[in-house]
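REQUEST FORM: STRUCTURE PREDICTION
Request ID: SP-0412
Submitted by: Lab K.M.
Chain count: 1
Length (residues): 91
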Amino acid sequence: MRHYLVVFDRRSGAVVRFQEFSNADDALTARFDAENEYADNADIEVVVLGASSKDSLLKTHARYFKGTLEIASSALTRLRRFEAASQARVA
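STATUS: Completed
RESULT:
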């Protein structure tokens, strides 16, 4: 499992820092350092996330990496597919 430090600016919706770690302890140390660095900024969110790959992380935690419109569009597409499949089963 890989570990990823994500420093996210909620106000701008942008990732300020993204680092990959193979060691959980190193990732947590980086997290604590980043939390200290951004302690005076309430808009900053600092997290360490675990995933099997960066691609997996981008899917499971899309809110950090995609814009609001992209997330909404993707959700709407999935909803329409679900509705179509449900109607096909009923018919």
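NOTES: Residues 3 and 23 are 7 Å apart (CA to CA).
Reviewed by: T.R.
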